[in-house]
Amino acid sequence: MSCLDDVEALRKADVHGMLAAYLRWADNLLEAAKRAEDISFPAEVRTRAGPIRYGEPDAVVIVGMGGSVVGGELLKDLTWDVVPVPVLVWRDYHMPAFAGPDTLVIAVSYSGNTEETLMAFSEALGRKCMIAAITSGGILGQLCKRLGIPVVEVPAGLKPRMALPYLFAPLPVLLEKLGLAKGLKGQVEEAAALLRHMAEDLGPDVPTARNKAKELASELKGTIPIVYGFGFFRSVAYRLKTQFNENSKVPSFYNWLPALNHDEVMGWEAEDALTKPFSVIFIRDRDEALEIRHRIEATKELVAGKASKVLELHALGSERLEKMLSVLYVGEMASLYLALARGVDPYAMASIDDIKEKLAVLGMAEKARARAEALVP
Ligand code: F6R
User: Fold this and answer.
1) What confidence tens digit (pLDDT) does each residue in 293-311 have?
2) Domain over 24-185+357-373 is classified CATH 3.40.50.450
């Protein structure tokens, strides 16, 4: 019996109830979509820099860090061929030069206290960008309330990565509200229905033989996972890499086709001592384009025998978001099981907290707060 089939031991090891929290993602997606649906954009927000006027944006910038902004990456892949304006994900203290009054900036920070996000937010405010936010509160939540900036409030008490449905689902709904795309809320609802169904087969009570997430975790144990995506699965591959890092506490990497065929693939020519620590997960879709199918097969041939394991994760559903989130969900759950199989707490995030604490001495979050407060009329 796999150690992942001792349900009691699993429950005891998962002290913070991460498994149960992830099994509620379908409900969380629907609740978040509803919260976003309920907010309204004001015609104008007054600031000391001048009025922010909400209208049709000519660019969308999703600002944030880590688990909070990854929803922006999913949004980009979901909408790149339907939204008529550029959608960018921005992870930095400073806003790009083009951001101005016609740019929609959505600041996403679960805690609302992340210094990079707050600095970029205050800069966007000074440039009179159309700002909205998604947060559970913190400094960002307070500033939005004081200024009258539209904010999607999400429940507190989770870790940002556990809150992905809350942080992601508002994004497509807000874009649809602004008339930048159609049918996105419907896709969120379809994907939630699929995740609800999938959750029945991914929980701790379902044994490894019938549980794709436990099976994946068992295969990955003792190796360094590399996730290869393509097309709209690029963001999914990226998110899974981050979950193997954050939940499972292992190094992990990602890349995507066709890009990796032009550089990374050379690395697999290295001697076995360098390639054997890795496992490769290829994301697959029954509707993948012929050229991508050929690339995956050719790449698999090169990697086979060099990596420790070559695995596949297959998309379910028919709509784009269903496909993306179905792959994501199995991988996310696998990252939790991998943590538990390794005897580590998937909830803990010591190194991230440690760096945040070390940086706090510079008082950047407070500086950003003061800069934004100076713009309150
Ligand atoms: C923690 C996590 C981190 C945070 C990041 C930004 O679960 O995923 O990547 O998301 O450090 O913090 P917040 O999300 O509070 O802005």
Assistant:
1) 999 999 999 999 999 999 9
2) no
Atom of ligand 1 nearest to the CA of 108: 16
What value does the mean pLDDT of the chain take?
97
User: Which CATH number among 3.40.50.1820, 3.40.50.300, 3.40.50.980, 3.40.50.10490 corresponds to the domain 3-13+203-341?
Assistant: 3.40.50.10490
Q: Which residue has the tokens 């099981």?
A: 337
pLDDT score recorded for residue 255: 98
Number of C-beta neighbours around residue 158 at 10 A: 20
pLDDT bracket for residue 202 (50, 70, 90): very high
Q: Is the pLDDT of residue 3 over 90?
A: no
* Distance between Cα 63 and ligand 1 center (Å): 12
Q: Are 173 and 36 in contact (CB under 8 A)?
A: yes
What are the residue boundaries of the structural domains of the chain, listed by start? 3-13+203-341, 24-185+357-373
Report how far ligand 1's centroid is from the alpha carbon of 1 (Å). Answer: 36
| Residue for token pair 């030069």 | 97
What are the DSSP calls for 120-140, one per residue?
Answer: HHHHHHHTT-EEEEEESSHHH
